[in-house]
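Tutorial, part two.
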Amino acid sequence: MRNFCNSEHQVMVWAVWLSFATISAANIVTPGPANLNTLRRALQLGFLPVLPTIFGNALGLAVGGALCAWGVSAFVITSDILWAAFRWVGTGYLAWFGTKLIVRRERIARPGKLDCPVRAGALFREALLLAVTNPKALLFYAALFPQVLDPERALLQQSALLVFTYCALSVVSLSVYALMANHVRERCLTQGRYDVFQIVSGVVLLGFACMLALSGA
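Running the prediction step on this input gives:
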């Protein structure tokens, strides 16, 4: 920590990091597919079973940050063909995911029981795919990294710190969402109410897919 704050060999300037963290927090809490998916799964399963969802999303964000740090995302964004392909992959996945929520019913876990209708691996993969196919984080990294990275300092260490910060803030934010959803689940959730929320979630994800498709029109 001393190297980060006080030493002349610090990884990056404290004020720059704090600005990045503040902007990241505002971006992360903005409603999006990851927040909605975490809310849905926490309502369905409870707080502890949804941890794989939270960390699966964090890994997806880390992958996006690594790609941006290596310059891959900048290359994709500046290439019309590659960016269009990536955007349509994300659009297709969101549309498929939203449609699945509308047409397929999911069983909520019974409070106080050990049975879980969804395996941890499935939750992790679901969140990971949702994160890596969503251009939101990639665009954020690509927009902010050039503004905060100092070419006079170690770029690898700076990039790692920024990606870790973004992922850690995401874990905290999604954990809060999950805790709130778990509180609602314990007080008033029924299978019928969850079914309604699941359908609404699917419709909202289809809306995100439409916005993503139209953003490149």
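The two ends are 46 Å apart (CA to CA). In part three we will examine how such features are distributed along the chain.
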